[in-house]
Amino acid sequence: MELGKSTARIAVIGLGPRGLGALESLAAKSQGGAVPLAVDVFDTYPACGAGPNFDPDESPICLLNIPMRDISIRPPAFSRCGSFADWLTNAPGPDTFPTRANLGRYLDARLADLKDLGILKLARSTHHVEALHRDSNGWMLRVDDQLRGPYAEVLLTVGQPEVTPDDQLADWQEHTSQSAGALAQAYPAKQLIAAASHWTGKTVAIRGLALSAFDVLRALTTAQGGRFDQGRYQASGQEPARILPFSLDGKPPYPKPGTEALDARFDPLPEETAIFEKAIAKAARATPGKAQAHLTAALVPVVSRIMRDCGAANERDVVSDWLDTEWSSPGEQESEGPQETLQLGISIASGASAPTIGYTVGQVWRKWQDALRSGFNSARTSPDTAKVIVGFDEGLKRYSYGPPLSSSLELAALIDAGLVDLALAADPDIQMTEAGWTLENGHLSKAASVMVDAVLPSPDLPSVTQSLVAGLANDGFLSPIADGLAAHTVEDGQLIGADGQIMPGLCLLGRLALGSVVAADSLHDCFGASGERWAEGVITRLG
User: Fold this and answer.
1) Binning pLDDT at 50, 70 and 90, where does residue 92 land?
2) Is-contact 482 383, C-beta < 8 A?
3) Using an 8 Å Cβ cutoff, are 486 and 238 in contact?
4) Closest C-alpha among 347, 348, 341, 252 to residue 306
5) Cβ within 8 Å of residue 69, ≥6 positions away
6) Domains located in the chain, CATH noted
7) How many Cα atoms occupy the beta-carbon half-sphere of 345 within 13 Å?
8) Mind listing the pLDDT tens digit for each residue in 515-527?
9) Residue 356 and residue 338: Cα distance in Å, rounded?
10) Rg (CA), the chain
11) CB-based burial label for 229 (10 Å; 0-12, 13-18, 19+)
C-alpha cells in the first residue's frame, strides 16, 4: 500500500485482547476521517486478537473466571459481531464459566470484522520488534535488523513479557538438567496435558495455588481420562499418584457466588457506588493515609448493610478493624488452614453459610472494579499512594478474582479421592534431590519427581528480558513509577521517561503499567476506558 504524505502511520506492538480493544477504540474515534489511519501491527503469536491467554486452540479445560452473566465486552457500534453471548452458536447459561478458547474465537472474529470494515488500514507483521528509537521524523522500529518507520505513534500492548526467573525457579531449572526431576509450566495447557500423560503413578507438586492451579489440576486429572460424577472423582488410572499444591499461605482462593441470585446479594446500591466513585477520585490524589481513609469510609457502610441483609450482622467498627488489617497485612485476619479455607469458601459461595467480612468486601470490590479503574487510572497518583491502593487491590484478589464454585468443588472431590494433598500447602521447605524435590513442613515430608510452575510473574521492569522492553528501559524511555511498581505512564498511556519527561507518541497499556493503572489483569480492562483514552490522545496529537 502506498501512503500519501499526509497519512499518519501508527505501530501497535502486541495484538492480544488489549491491542484489539485499543484498535477498536481508535477505529471508533477516527470514523469519518478524510484518510484512514494506517496501522502496522507486529505480533509473532499466531492467534492475533486472542493472544496466548485465549488461544482458540487451547484446551477446553482452561476456563474463564467470569460467568457468562458478567462478561461485558460489547464491541463498538460499527462492529457486526454482537455480544459474546449472541455470537456463540449455543450460548451456555448465565451461571456457566465459558472456556477461554471460545472467547478467543470470538475475539478472533472481532478482529476479522475490524479488518474487513476497512476503517483502519491494518497490516500485520509476524516479525519480532527488537528495538525502537526516535529521530527527527518520528519513531523507528528495528525489525529483523531492518528499520521500519517513521511512525507518528507507537503503542506497546505486550502483556507479560519474558522475565528472569526468580531465584527459586532458576535453581530448579538448573537442577532439572542434573537430576531425574521434571519441571513444567502451567501453560500452554495442551503441552502440559501431553507431558502429564507420562506422569502416571508419580507425585507432582504445583507451585502456586491461585487460578492457574485449577487449570493444572484438570490437566492432570480429567484431561487424562478421569471424570467428576455427583461430587466424586472417578479416576482413569492415568493420573499421577499424588498431587501436592503449595503457595506462601497455602490457601486456595475463595470461589465466586454460585448463582446469579446469590451474587446479587452483594450488589452495591447506586447511591453507594456514587459515594465510592467520589472516594476513589479523592483517594487517587491523596496521601497514602488519606487514600486509605477515603476508601475505608466508602466500604464500611456497604459491607455492613450487605452482611446484615445476609443475616451476618457485624458492627461497623468490626468491619473497619478488618479493613485496617487488610491495608497493612492482607490475610492476617484469617486463621483457617488450607482445607478449612476451601470448605468455608464452598459453603459461602453455595449459600449454605453467611458471608464473612472478607468475602463480602471482596465481592463488593469486584463489583466496583470499573469505578476503581475509572477513578484511579485517569488520575496522576503519587507513587506512595499508588503502592497502597495497588497493594490493597492485589491482596483482595483472593476474593475478587476467585474461581467458579465448580472448580472449588472439584478440588474438594480430588482431596476426598486421596489424589490431592494439602498437608504441605503452606510455604513448605523444599529440598532438591536426585529424584526431584522433597517438600517438608515440620515432621511431615513428601517427595515429588515433577514440579509444575503455576505462578504468574509480577510486572517487575528490571526482571524483563524481552529485548524491546529491556532496551526501552536501558535507553531511559521507560521507567518504573516506583520500586516494586511498573512503568510510569500518563492518562492516555504515554510513557514518562527516566528524565521525568513524556515520550511523545510512545504509549504502553496493560499490566506493565501497574501502579500508573490498577486492576489491569481484568479482561474487561482490555476493552475499557484505557483504550479509549489512548485513542483520543492519538487523534488529538495527530490533529
Assistant:
1) confident
2) yes
3) no
4) 348
5) 94, 95, 260, 263
6) 9-162+459-542 (3.50.50.60), 167-253+406-453 (3.50.50), 260-400 (no CATH)
7) 30
8) 999 999 899 999 9
9) 16
10) 24
11) exposed
Interacting residues of 246 by C-beta distance below 8 A, sequence separation 6+: 205, 206, 207, 209, 424, 425, 426, 427, 428, 439
Spatial contact of 156 and 150, defined as CB atoms under 8 Å apart: no
Tell me how far the alpha carbon of residue 413 is from its chain's centroid. 27
> How far apart (Å, rounded) are the C-alpha atoms in residues 315 and 307?
10
What's the N-to-C CA distance of the chain in angstroms?
A: 23
Report the SS3 class of residue 502.
Answer: strand
User: Cell 507507537 sits at which residue?
Assistant: 154
Q: What's the pLDDT at 313?
A: 73
Q: Is residue 447 scored above 70 in pLDDT? A: yes
Is the pLDDT reported for residue 452 higher than 50? Answer: yes
C-alpha grid cell, residue 428: 513448605
Select from 508, 512, 511, 515 the least CA-distant residue to 534: 508
To 5 degrees, how large is the angle CA 361–CA 363–CA 369?
Answer: 100
The grid coordinates listed for 516 are: 500508573
Cβ atoms of 279 and 392 closer than 8 Å:
no
The grid coordinates of residue 94 equal 448465565
Buried b (16+ CB within 10 A) or exposed e, 32-57: eeeebbbbbbbbeeebbbbbbbbbbe
CA atoms within 13 A on the CB side of 281: 8
β pairing state of 232-234 and 227-229: antiparallel
pTM: 0.94
DSSP for 107-162 reads HHHHHHHHHHHTSEEEEEE-SPEEEEEEETTEEEEEETTEEEEEESEEEE---S--
Widest CA span in the chain: 74
